[in-house]
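Write out the 3D structure for:
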Amino acid sequence: MEHAFYASDPAWDGRFVAAVRTTGIFCRPSCRVRKPLPRNVEYLADAAAARAAGYRPCLRCHPEAAGTVTLRTLDTPVGPMLTGATTDAIVLCDFANRPMIGAQLAAVRRRIGPTVEGRAALLDALESQLVQYFSGLRQDFDLPLDMPGSAFQERVWSELRRIPYGHTISYRELADRVDAGGAYRAVGRANGSNRLAIIVPCHCVIAAGGGLGGYGGGLPAKRWLLDLEGSYAGVGAVAAIRSRTNRAAVGSTSSAGPERLHSMVVQPS
């Protein structure tokens, strides 16, 4: 346990907590705070035991948020997606190959709990609903979600969920909706930190001039998702940005190009 704590090893989260005698605070093993001297640390079974011994939870690593997150990677038309769920809610659905996936997983472990690979009923339900979405048979997801973040992030994510299927808004409009004034970059960062891609439609936020802007899953994936929704919703705004972006040079972090993506899902008639 001592080795895991001093290595800040997230694989041990949920298996014990480390309580610091000199501060009266207990942490999860993965906590990144400055480590105390070993003689000042005792190891307890869980948060309840630490509470009973008079310790307070760390405000950085939130050791009482200890619901285990089950992870599974799903193959989708826009590339592999790493999904995660507790027994109560979906907590992760993001592009497995995006550069930020490590930070996304770290946020899940810090704010929700340790992760394990496996099967979960909610992940089966998510997989089924994603198949329906990619086939044009579903426009909304009716699954319990849990995505804790900063107050600002949660405000942005809540506003994203208000965007109707097949519609787009600009980063500037999103900033206005969350009363962020001209803080477009902060809004963009919060948008990029969304851990529930597609379910919370950050792909529907585009540049003010009509370009795609950025996307964690790569711009071809973003354009493909907008094409899909535009095809089934018949929304003029999406069709308009499709015609503009078809003329633009688009870079990507994804290995799946638009042609391959289109071949992997039922196309609208």
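The CA atoms of residues 174 and 187 lie 7 Å apart.
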